[in-house]
Q: What sequence folds into this?
């Protein structure tokens, strides 16, 4: 007997989290689209979140300024980190960036000024559903402009074959660094939004499993276009909530079994939808065409 | 000081055993297998069930648990990695499917064992502390060191002197070339997973015995350290993983002694960074430019 | 047949509305998976047992309490989602939980905004919980209410002059415990020779313990949760440390004794729940858990007590189970007999009851006289 209003109230947080997770997925996609697997974004998210939280709690800056700061703060770290680290190939870059994320988390756990493990609490809720989606739309817009542009082509050619791209005269270092910093800024602003939506920040929210989640969003959604990662984020964020609802009707108790189903679904998507969920419509079309052909 | 050195060596052994499994799969498949820590954990639980419920002695339970872990490795390869071979971005999808399987394994462990910490029943292993100078070593610790040394030696022999070992090294070098040479690449990869997971499971049992603690999340604490170890040692190098395991174990322990424990993990990652920036191939890694 | 249909038709709408109906729904937001799953599971056992016992006793007639459980996965986002669901969809009268303080700081503000009372049963962060607003209450003593008394008593008994401290710095529970331990030791004039930290996932404490032991402290004070506590104590003894050890709330668990075995002997524990209390309420609780085959720990006791407190609030509000009723009822709870002892709320909505100091003797917790 729940009215539509109740339904919205129940799920508005979930929808907001989808928006934040979409931004996080895009932040990982930023480096994936030029062929780099960077897993530093939980660290960047933490930097953005804490910067924003500290500014809100200790200054009277307007929220827009705070959000800007949450994008710039991690970008400042991304430049000196990116320069040496982006020289590494593939898996080494991944591991180095995992290391960075862990160092940020450990630093926050040990920093008394921000209360260590407890973090900063009682942050006023300055971010609403519309703020989050406004930022997301801006991010998607930026990616869409990237697509057909000269920079976009440069990134694609780096992804295909970096050495060849360099010989063609593309400044691969600048391109990769720019996307690395862009990804950091996106993660930071997502962190700032989340901090002002969930009332608090704490180091435990920015660990290794966080960045793994982001990567999963991107890959499950599909990394061929910038629309994939947000779709993946929506899917993975809604999944536990859908399971929660479904589970009750089929008597699936909250607990390990739900976790099992999550893992199974993730595995199924990876195995059977190699190009991500976003390739589903294409698949359906292909199947239908094959059937029509007889 | 001597005690800390012993602590470091002991910790290092376990890191090394865990890391060797990681590095083997990485060398062969170019994939970080994030389910390795879940098999580490399940191997330990297998031994716990055998000793706790079936009352087998640890000497019998250990090899069974190791074989069980190896079998899990083959299962892992079959469901998570093999279907992805030959696809674009197989490294990344492989990474993610290993995450999915790790989640499945953890959920199974949670369902059957609950989230509580358990330990091996008292008296599973006779404990007798020995004194060396001012330091204390237990018979359990010595035994664990001995077992891991034996396992490493067996592994090295396997890789250097047997046909399977040669095939594994060939696939690690270039699967395409190996296939042309008539090697059954899928079978070799399955074998590598068996060995890698068997070692991971062994590390898990020894870890649980050594620190009297077992829960579905024990893999987490070693997962990231394992990465630091294989980077320092060099990807794909077994002796590298061994040396690096010791190095990181000792570094950690002495960081705690001199600087305080807050810096412990940070130092491991600092080492990781330094290695990646100065000498990415680590101590003994090959400068492999992986061929398709 | 026609009577049966009538019954079914009548029963359906009752299950939708919690206000003023026969069933008072309490949402239990617990960590059943993820990092805090151990505690969430213990809490679920306690809550379910208490709900059954309260209903069976008929003390709330004609009302009944129903607990709706859901998992927050030890993550704040899921905590928020569960709270929203409880508040807007299940329409609970009150929420019990969440397990972790960090989840609470994210989810409780939503309950406060929506005017739904929350009873925390394991949040021990010194600030940031009940400060959120007047709908947030808790029955879990903070370490600040438990540790100083324990250290004072231990000091009076053992007379140590120096201490070594080991604590988990990545968990709110254990970090809060450390802050209090440090202050308490200093105010007793005990010199802290060495402080070491560890992280929750750690299992090897040899390095830290060796460093602490080498300074020869008069006592080893540890702030850790049960899983780590058992390993710490075992490894300390293995390394040859034979002095006294004192722990906080985290040690107060049968799992600690079970996993530490003989190493647990003599360990002092400052705790919110006196497991060996002979009070009727505690004995009834122990019996109830025994019948269910559950070995209760402090988390179970605090969860069980939480339901008793909610039932009392309903009574004090005049047998009314609405949201405002329970909130008003909380304020009237005074010296309620619970497994934790005689319970009241402080004016700041925090827990108030006598803590205790225990010692492990013969594999069991005993009150330190």
A:
């Amino acid at each position: 007997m729940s009215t539509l209003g109740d339904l919205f109230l129940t799920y508005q947080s979930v929808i907001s989290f989808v928006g934040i997770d979409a931004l996080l997925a895009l932040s990982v996609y930023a480096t994936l689209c030029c062929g780099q697997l960077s897993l530093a974004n939980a660290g960047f998210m933490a930097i953005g979140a804490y910067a924003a939280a500290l500014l809100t709690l200790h200054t009277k800056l307007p929220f827009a300024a705070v959000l800007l700061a949450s994008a710039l703060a991690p970008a400042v770290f991304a430049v000196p980190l990116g320069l040496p680290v982006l020289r590494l190939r593939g898996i080494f870059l991944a591991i180095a960036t995992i290391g960075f994320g862990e160092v940020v988390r450990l630093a926050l756990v040990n920093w008394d000024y921000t209360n260590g493990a407890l973090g900063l609490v009682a942050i006023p809720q300055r971010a609403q559903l519309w703020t989050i989606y406004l930022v997301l739309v801006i991010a998607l817009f930026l990616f869409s402009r990237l697509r057909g542009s000269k920079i976009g082509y440069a990134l694609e050619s780096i992804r295909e074959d970096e050495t060849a791209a360099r010989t063609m005269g593309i400044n691969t270092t600048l391109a990769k660094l720019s996307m690395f910093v862009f990804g950091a800024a996106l993660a930071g602003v997502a962190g700032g939004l989340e901090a002002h939506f969930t009332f608090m920040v704490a180091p435990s929210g920015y660990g290794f499993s966080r960045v793994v989640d982001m990567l999963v969003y991107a890959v499950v959604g599909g990394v061929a276009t910038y629309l994939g990662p947000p779709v993946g984020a929506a899917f993975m964020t809604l999944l536990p909530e859908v399971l929660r609802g479904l589970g009750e009707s089929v008597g699936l108790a909250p607990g390990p079994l739900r976790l099992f189903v999550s893992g199974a679904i993730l595995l199924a998507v990876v195995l059977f939808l190699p190009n991500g969920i976003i390739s589903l419509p294409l698949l359906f079309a292909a199947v239908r065409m094959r059937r029509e052909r007889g | 000081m001597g005690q800390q050195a012993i602590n470091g060596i002991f910790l290092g052994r376990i890191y090394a055993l865990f890391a060797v499994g990681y590095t083997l799969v990485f060398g062969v498949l170019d994939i970080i297998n994030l389910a390795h820590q879940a098999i580490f954990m399940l191997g330990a639980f297998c031994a716990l069930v055998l000793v706790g419920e079936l009352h087998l002695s640890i000497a019998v339970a250990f090899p069974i648990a190791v074989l069980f872990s190896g079998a899990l490795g083959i299962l892992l390869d079959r469901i998570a990695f093999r279907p992805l071979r030959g696809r674009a971005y197989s490294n990344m999808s492989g990474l993610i499917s290993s995450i999915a399987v790790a989640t499945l394994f953890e959920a199974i462990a949670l369902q059957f064992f609950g989230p509580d910490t358990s330990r091996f029943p008292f008296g599973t292993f006779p404990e007798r502390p020995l004194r060396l100078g001012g330091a204390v070593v237990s018979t359990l610790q010595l035994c664990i060191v001995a077992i891991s040394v034996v396992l490493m030696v067996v592994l090295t022999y396997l890789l250097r002197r047997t046909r399977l070992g040669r095939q594994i090294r060939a696939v690690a070098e270039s699967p395409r070339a190996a296939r042309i040479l008539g090697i059954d690449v899928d079978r070799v990869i399955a074998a590598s997973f068996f060995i890698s997971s068997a070692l991971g499971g062994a590390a898990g049992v020894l870890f649980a015995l050594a620190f009297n603690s077992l829960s579905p999340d024990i893999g987490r604490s070693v997962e990231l350290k394992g990465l630091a170890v294989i980077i320092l040692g060099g990807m794909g190098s077994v002796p590298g993983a061994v040396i690096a395991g010791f190095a990181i174990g000792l570094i950690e322990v002495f960081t705690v002694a001199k600087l305080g424990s807050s810096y412990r993990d940070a130092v491991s990652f600092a080492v990781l960074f330094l290695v990646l920036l100065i000498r990415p191939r680590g101590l003994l890694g090959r400068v492999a430019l992986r061929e398709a | 047949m026609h009577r049966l249909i009538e019954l079914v038709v009548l029963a359906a709408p009752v299950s939708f509305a919690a206000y003023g109906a026969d069933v008072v729904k309490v949402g239990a937001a617990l960590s059943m998976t993820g990092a805090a799953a151990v505690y969430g599971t213990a809490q679920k056992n306690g809550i379910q047992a208490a709900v059954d016992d309260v209903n069976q006793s008929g003390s709330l007639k004609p009302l009944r309490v129903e607990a709706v459980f859901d998992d927050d996965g030890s993550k704040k986002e899921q905590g928020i989602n569960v709270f929203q669901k409880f508040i807007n969809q299940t329409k609970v009268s009150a929420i019990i939980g969440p397990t972790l303080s960090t989840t609470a700081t994210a989810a409780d503000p939503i309950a406060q905004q929506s005017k739904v009372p929350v009873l925390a049963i394991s949040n021990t962060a010194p600030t940031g919980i009940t400060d959120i607003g007047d709908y947030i209450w808790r029955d879990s003593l903070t370490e600040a209410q438990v540790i100083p008394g324990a250290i004072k008593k231990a000091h009076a008994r053992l007379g140590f002059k120096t201490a070594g401290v080991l604590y988990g710095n990545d968990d709110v529970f254990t970090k809060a415990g450390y802050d209090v331990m440090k202050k308490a030791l200093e105010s007793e004039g005990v010199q802290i020779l060495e402080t070491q930290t560890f992280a929750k996932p750690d299992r090897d404490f040899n390095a830290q313990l060796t460093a602490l032991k080498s300074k020869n402290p008069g006592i080893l004070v540890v702030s850790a949760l049960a899983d780590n506590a058992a390993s710490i104590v075992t490894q300390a003894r293995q390394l040859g440390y034979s002095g006294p050890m004192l722990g906080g709330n985290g040690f107060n668990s049968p799992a600690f004794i079970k996993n530490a075995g003989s190493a647990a002997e003599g360990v002092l524990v400052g705790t919110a729940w006196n497991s060996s209390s002979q009070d009727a309420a505690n004995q009834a609780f122990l019996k109830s858990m025994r019948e269910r085959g559950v070995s209760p720990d402090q988390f179970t006791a605090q969860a069980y007590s939480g339901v008793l407190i909610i039932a009392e609030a309903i009574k004090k509000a005049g047998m009314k189970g609405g949201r405002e009723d329970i909130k008003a009822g909380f304020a009237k709870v005074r010296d309620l007999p619970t497994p934790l002892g005689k319970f009241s709320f402080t004016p700041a909505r925090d827990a108030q009851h006598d803590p205790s100091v225990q010692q492990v003797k013969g594999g069991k917790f005993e009150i330190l006289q």
User: Anything to note?
Assistant: The radius of gyration of chain B is 19 Å. The CA atoms of residues 47 and 61 of chain B lie 5 Å apart. The first helix of chain B runs from residue 2 to 29.
